[in-house]
Amino acid sequence: MRDRKPWLLVVGLTLTWLLLAAQVSLTQLLLGMAVALLMVFRFRPVRPVQPRLRRPASAFRLLGRVTLDILRSNYNVARIVLGLTGGREIRPGFVDIPLKLRDPHGLATLSAIVTSTPGTVWANLSEDGSTLTLHVLDLTENQHWIDTIKQRYESLLMEIFE
Amino acid sequence: MTGDSLPAWASIIAAVLLVVGGLCTALGSLGLLRLPSFYARMHGPSMGNTLGLGCVLLASMLLASVTSGKAVVHEVLITVFVVTTSPITAMLLMQASVRRPKVPPAG
Asked: Best of A25, A116, A124, A125 to disrupt the B interface by mutation (most B CBs within 10 Å)?
């Protein structure tokens, strides 16, 4: 763990710098790289858990899935807000999801996904990290949400981070 | 920015994106107003946060790229920052409500 070099983070931060500078020139590239290297190596002691990306390529599959789900759930929530549920009362409620994912970076990514998807909000993660509680706007079937989180997101996140 | 330097296809796509984004944000805010409980209301604004914001940023990237003649993509960073920071506020609000002593509803 100790000798893993966080090159991906350096590349990411340099890219962020270039995007912020809004121009690609040698000066900006060198400046961005210097800042990124300084930040990454100076801040290593205060970031005890280093992420390890086992299969970064799976991240693109995850991005595709999440984009699709965001579009779909925006449509669903829009219908609920406008009252177009065919006369059916919506049932907001909590659902407990057993988690196998333990990597903190994976969990952070999962929380970003859950929050970005309208209709689901992260409510709680149990102390031992074994159960995630979500609040769902229209909880028709608990098992449906458990399957969605576990099969669509958790399996891919474990592939990427664990 | 002058309107006449903009080709028709770009203004049409940008207009559609802005209308869709605006509608999403408006519907999300309407949800905040209309949904029945605190927890249910948490779900409304995330519409504006995701698809609403996404559409507006895409329109902005398109317009800036077409008018300046080179790819302008630094709006992507806004998405990255919003997506990475919004779980924090969502969790804070949810935890505040979950841990609050339950008061029986009046009436």
From this structure: A116
Q: Do A135 and B36 touch (CB under 8 A)?
A: no
Q: How far apart are CA A109 and CA B72, in angstroms?
A: 27
Identify all chain B residues contacting A72, using CB atoms and an 8 Å cutoff.
Answer: none
Q: Is residue A53 part of a domain?
A: no
CA B82 to each of CA A71, B51, B93: distance values in angstroms, whole numbers, following the listed order: 17, 12, 17
Question: Structure tokens of B59?
Answer: 């329109």
Whether residue A2 is contained in a domain is answered as no
Helix axes B76-98 and A104-116, enclosed angle (nearest 10): 90
pLDDT for residue A111 is more than 90: yes
Total structural domains within chain A: 2
Q: In terms of domains, do A115 and A85 share one?
A: yes
Looking at the complex, report in whole angstroms how far the Cα of residue B74 sits from the nearest Cα belonging to chain A. Answer: 5
B64 Cβ under 8 Å from any chain A Cβ: no
The whole domain housing A28 covers 7-46
Contact state of A122 with B84 under an 8 Å Cβ cutoff? no
Task: Kindly report whether the global pTM for this prediction surpasses the value 0.90.
Answer: no
pLDDT for A47 beyond 90: no
